[in-house]
Amino acid sequence: MSPNVPRGAAMLLDFIAKLETNRQGQAAYETIIGYRNEKPGALPRPITEMTLEELLAEQKRWVRNLKAPSGAAGRYQIIRPTLLSLIAELGVPLSARFTPDLQDRFGFALLKRRGWTQFAANGLPLRQFGDRLAREWASWPVLAPQQGAHRQVQRGESYYAGDGINASLTRAATAEAMLAEVLDELNRPAQPAPAPAPAPTPPAPAPAPRRGIVGWVLFWGLVAAGLVVGACTIPLPF
Fold first, then answer.
1. HEC assignment per residue over the chain
2. Is the pTM of this model over 0.70?
Protein backbone atom coordinates (compact mmCIF):
# COMPACT_ATOMS: atom_id res chain seq x y z
CA MET A 1 0.00 0.00 0.00
CA SER A 2 1.27 3.45 -0.89
CA PRO A 3 2.57 5.39 2.15
CA ASN A 4 0.58 8.38 0.88
CA VAL A 5 -2.71 6.67 1.79
CA PRO A 6 -3.58 7.53 5.41
CA ARG A 7 -4.22 4.91 8.06
CA GLY A 8 -7.83 3.82 8.17
CA ALA A 9 -8.22 4.45 4.45
CA ALA A 10 -5.51 1.87 3.79
CA MET A 11 -7.41 -0.67 5.89
CA LEU A 12 -10.61 -0.03 3.98
CA LEU A 13 -8.93 -0.20 0.59
CA ASP A 14 -7.29 -3.51 1.53
CA PHE A 15 -10.71 -4.92 2.38
CA ILE A 16 -12.30 -3.63 -0.84
CA ALA A 17 -9.42 -4.90 -2.97
CA LYS A 18 -9.79 -8.39 -1.53
CA LEU A 19 -13.48 -8.36 -2.47
CA GLU A 20 -12.84 -6.98 -5.93
CA THR A 21 -9.92 -9.18 -6.99
CA ASN A 22 -9.66 -12.12 -4.58
CA ARG A 23 -5.90 -11.79 -5.06
CA GLN A 24 -3.07 -10.75 -2.78
CA GLY A 25 0.00 -8.55 -3.22
CA GLN A 26 1.26 -7.78 -6.72
CA ALA A 27 -1.26 -10.17 -8.29
CA ALA A 28 -4.13 -7.92 -7.18
CA TYR A 29 -2.60 -4.91 -8.93
CA GLU A 30 -2.24 -6.93 -12.15
CA THR A 31 -5.80 -8.31 -12.18
CA ILE A 32 -8.22 -7.50 -14.98
CA ILE A 33 -11.84 -8.52 -15.22
CA GLY A 34 -12.38 -12.26 -15.45
CA TYR A 35 -8.70 -12.88 -14.56
CA ARG A 36 -7.94 -12.74 -18.28
CA ASN A 37 -4.47 -11.49 -17.39
CA GLU A 38 -3.73 -14.98 -16.06
CA LYS A 39 -4.34 -16.56 -19.46
CA PRO A 40 -1.21 -16.91 -21.60
CA GLY A 41 -1.03 -14.35 -24.40
CA ALA A 42 -4.11 -12.38 -23.32
CA LEU A 43 -2.06 -9.24 -22.57
CA PRO A 44 1.12 -7.91 -24.17
CA ARG A 45 2.52 -7.29 -20.64
CA PRO A 46 1.21 -6.76 -17.09
CA ILE A 47 -1.02 -3.72 -16.70
CA THR A 48 1.32 -2.38 -13.97
CA GLU A 49 3.91 -1.87 -16.73
CA MET A 50 1.50 -0.11 -19.12
CA THR A 51 1.11 3.62 -19.46
CA LEU A 52 -2.36 4.99 -18.87
CA GLU A 53 -2.68 5.62 -22.59
CA GLU A 54 -1.87 1.98 -23.33
CA LEU A 55 -4.23 0.75 -20.64
CA LEU A 56 -7.14 2.82 -21.93
CA ALA A 57 -6.62 1.29 -25.38
CA GLU A 58 -6.42 -2.19 -23.84
CA GLN A 59 -9.67 -1.70 -21.95
CA LYS A 60 -11.46 -1.04 -25.23
CA ARG A 61 -9.88 -4.16 -26.73
CA TRP A 62 -10.97 -6.38 -23.83
CA VAL A 63 -14.59 -5.43 -24.33
CA ARG A 64 -14.40 -5.66 -28.11
CA ASN A 65 -12.15 -8.68 -28.72
CA LEU A 66 -12.02 -10.57 -25.44
CA LYS A 67 -15.78 -10.24 -24.91
CA ALA A 68 -15.26 -8.85 -21.42
CA PRO A 69 -18.31 -7.21 -19.82
CA SER A 70 -16.18 -4.19 -18.86
CA GLY A 71 -12.61 -2.95 -18.78
CA ALA A 72 -12.24 -3.28 -14.98
CA ALA A 73 -8.54 -3.19 -14.18
CA GLY A 74 -6.20 -3.32 -11.23
CA ARG A 75 -6.53 -3.71 -7.49
CA TYR A 76 -9.69 -1.59 -7.39
CA GLN A 77 -11.19 -2.87 -10.68
CA ILE A 78 -11.45 0.59 -12.21
CA ILE A 79 -13.54 0.68 -15.38
CA ARG A 80 -12.60 2.84 -18.34
CA PRO A 81 -15.00 5.80 -17.79
CA THR A 82 -13.95 6.01 -14.12
CA LEU A 83 -10.27 5.84 -15.07
CA LEU A 84 -10.71 8.69 -17.55
CA SER A 85 -12.41 10.82 -14.89
CA LEU A 86 -9.65 10.11 -12.34
CA ILE A 87 -6.94 11.04 -14.82
CA ALA A 88 -8.68 14.36 -15.47
CA GLU A 89 -9.46 15.04 -11.80
CA LEU A 90 -5.94 14.36 -10.53
CA GLY A 91 -4.10 15.75 -13.55
CA VAL A 92 -2.13 12.57 -14.17
CA PRO A 93 -0.35 12.48 -17.56
CA LEU A 94 -1.22 9.66 -19.95
CA SER A 95 2.46 8.75 -20.00
CA ALA A 96 2.31 7.71 -16.33
CA ARG A 97 2.41 3.98 -15.70
CA PHE A 98 -0.42 2.16 -13.96
CA THR A 99 1.85 1.25 -11.06
CA PRO A 100 0.69 -0.03 -7.66
CA ASP A 101 1.37 3.42 -6.13
CA LEU A 102 -0.76 5.14 -8.75
CA GLN A 103 -3.53 2.56 -8.32
CA ASP A 104 -3.57 3.23 -4.57
CA ARG A 105 -3.75 6.94 -5.28
CA PHE A 106 -6.74 6.34 -7.56
CA GLY A 107 -8.38 4.09 -4.96
CA PHE A 108 -8.06 6.75 -2.26
CA ALA A 109 -9.49 9.36 -4.65
CA LEU A 110 -12.53 7.11 -5.13
CA LEU A 111 -12.99 6.87 -1.37
CA LYS A 112 -12.91 10.66 -1.13
CA ARG A 113 -15.47 10.96 -3.89
CA ARG A 114 -17.83 8.86 -1.79
CA GLY A 115 -17.40 10.93 1.36
CA TRP A 116 -14.26 9.65 3.07
CA THR A 117 -13.25 13.05 4.44
CA GLN A 118 -16.63 13.59 6.13
CA PHE A 119 -16.77 10.00 7.38
CA ALA A 120 -13.27 10.24 8.87
CA ALA A 121 -14.31 13.45 10.68
CA ASN A 122 -17.44 11.72 12.08
CA GLY A 123 -19.58 13.94 9.90
CA LEU A 124 -21.13 11.18 7.77
CA PRO A 125 -23.07 8.28 9.31
CA LEU A 126 -21.50 4.84 8.89
CA ARG A 127 -24.41 3.32 6.96
CA GLN A 128 -24.70 6.30 4.67
CA PHE A 129 -21.02 6.09 3.81
CA GLY A 130 -21.36 2.34 3.30
CA ASP A 131 -24.21 2.84 0.83
CA ARG A 132 -22.09 5.33 -1.08
CA LEU A 133 -19.29 2.77 -1.34
CA ALA A 134 -21.79 0.26 -2.77
CA ARG A 135 -22.33 2.61 -5.71
CA GLU A 136 -18.59 2.64 -6.40
CA TRP A 137 -17.79 -1.05 -5.95
CA ALA A 138 -20.32 -3.70 -6.95
CA SER A 139 -18.84 -6.27 -4.56
CA TRP A 140 -19.64 -4.03 -1.56
CA PRO A 141 -23.23 -4.56 -0.26
CA VAL A 142 -25.86 -1.92 0.36
CA LEU A 143 -26.57 -1.52 4.06
CA ALA A 144 -30.27 -0.68 3.76
CA PRO A 145 -33.06 -1.52 1.26
CA GLN A 146 -33.08 0.99 -1.61
CA GLN A 147 -33.52 1.48 -5.30
CA GLY A 148 -30.47 0.04 -7.01
CA ALA A 149 -29.11 0.66 -10.48
CA HIS A 150 -31.45 -1.91 -12.06
CA ARG A 151 -34.10 -2.81 -9.48
CA GLN A 152 -35.06 -2.52 -5.82
CA VAL A 153 -32.29 -4.13 -3.77
CA GLN A 154 -32.33 -5.45 -0.22
CA ARG A 155 -29.77 -5.05 2.54
CA GLY A 156 -26.72 -7.17 1.70
CA GLU A 157 -27.24 -7.13 -2.08
CA SER A 158 -25.07 -5.34 -4.62
CA TYR A 159 -26.30 -1.93 -5.70
CA TYR A 160 -25.91 -3.29 -9.24
CA ALA A 161 -27.80 -6.54 -8.63
CA GLY A 162 -30.06 -7.49 -11.52
CA ASP A 163 -27.60 -6.78 -14.33
CA GLY A 164 -26.64 -10.45 -14.63
CA ILE A 165 -22.99 -9.66 -13.90
CA ASN A 166 -22.47 -8.12 -10.48
CA ALA A 167 -23.16 -9.42 -6.99
CA SER A 168 -22.22 -8.51 -3.45
CA LEU A 169 -19.31 -10.59 -2.17
CA THR A 170 -19.69 -10.04 1.58
CA ARG A 171 -22.46 -9.70 4.12
CA ALA A 172 -23.79 -6.30 5.16
CA ALA A 173 -22.88 -7.02 8.79
CA THR A 174 -19.27 -7.74 7.76
CA ALA A 175 -19.08 -4.49 5.80
CA GLU A 176 -20.47 -2.56 8.77
CA ALA A 177 -17.97 -4.18 11.11
CA MET A 178 -15.16 -3.18 8.75
CA LEU A 179 -16.29 0.46 8.77
CA ALA A 180 -16.56 0.41 12.56
CA GLU A 181 -13.01 -0.95 12.77
CA VAL A 182 -11.83 1.84 10.48
CA LEU A 183 -13.44 4.43 12.75
CA ASP A 184 -11.74 2.89 15.77
CA GLU A 185 -8.42 3.13 13.97
CA LEU A 186 -9.05 6.77 13.08
CA ASN A 187 -9.94 7.65 16.67
CA ARG A 188 -6.92 5.87 18.14
CA PRO A 189 -4.07 8.26 19.00
CA ALA A 190 -1.13 7.89 16.68
CA GLN A 191 1.74 6.02 18.26
CA PRO A 192 4.83 8.23 18.73
CA ALA A 193 7.88 7.17 16.81
CA PRO A 194 10.32 5.25 18.99
CA ALA A 195 13.21 7.35 20.29
CA PRO A 196 16.56 6.47 18.75
CA ALA A 197 18.76 4.33 20.94
CA PRO A 198 21.50 6.36 22.68
CA ALA A 199 25.01 5.90 21.35
CA PRO A 200 27.01 3.46 23.44
CA THR A 201 29.29 5.15 25.99
CA PRO A 202 32.92 4.11 25.54
CA PRO A 203 34.31 2.41 28.62
CA ALA A 204 36.40 4.61 30.91
CA PRO A 205 40.11 3.82 30.91
CA ALA A 206 41.20 1.60 33.75
CA PRO A 207 42.83 3.61 36.54
CA ALA A 208 46.56 3.20 36.99
CA PRO A 209 47.35 0.80 39.79
CA ARG A 210 47.93 2.53 43.08
CA ARG A 211 50.78 1.51 45.34
CA GLY A 212 50.22 1.61 49.03
CA ILE A 213 53.00 2.05 51.63
CA VAL A 214 53.85 -1.65 51.50
CA GLY A 215 54.04 -1.50 47.74
CA TRP A 216 56.46 1.42 47.77
CA VAL A 217 58.66 -0.30 50.43
CA LEU A 218 58.85 -3.41 48.27
CA PHE A 219 59.55 -1.34 45.16
CA TRP A 220 62.46 0.60 46.67
CA GLY A 221 63.73 -2.54 48.38
CA LEU A 222 63.98 -4.23 44.98
CA VAL A 223 65.76 -1.19 43.56
CA ALA A 224 68.30 -1.17 46.44
CA ALA A 225 68.89 -4.91 46.07
CA GLY A 226 69.53 -4.42 42.39
CA LEU A 227 72.09 -1.73 43.08
CA VAL A 228 73.93 -3.93 45.62
CA VAL A 229 74.04 -6.86 43.24
CA GLY A 230 75.23 -4.60 40.47
CA ALA A 231 78.01 -3.19 42.67
CA CYS A 232 79.25 -6.63 43.63
CA THR A 233 79.40 -7.88 40.07
CA ILE A 234 81.16 -4.92 38.50
CA PRO A 235 84.88 -5.89 37.98
CA LEU A 236 87.37 -3.70 39.73
CA PRO A 237 89.97 -1.86 37.63
CA PHE A 238 92.93 -3.49 39.46
1. CCCCCCCCHHHHHHHHHHHHHCCCHHHHHCCEHHHHHHCCCCCCCCHHHCEHHHHHHHHHHHHHCCCCCCCCECCCCECHHHHHHHHHHHCCCCCCECCHHHHHHHHHHHHHHCCHHHHHCCCCCHHHHHHHHHHHCCCCECCCCEECCCCEECCCCECCCCCCCCCCCCCHHHHHHHHHHHHHHHHCCCCCCCCCCCCCCCCCCCCCCCCCHHHHHHHHHHHHHHHHHHHHHCCCCC
2. yes
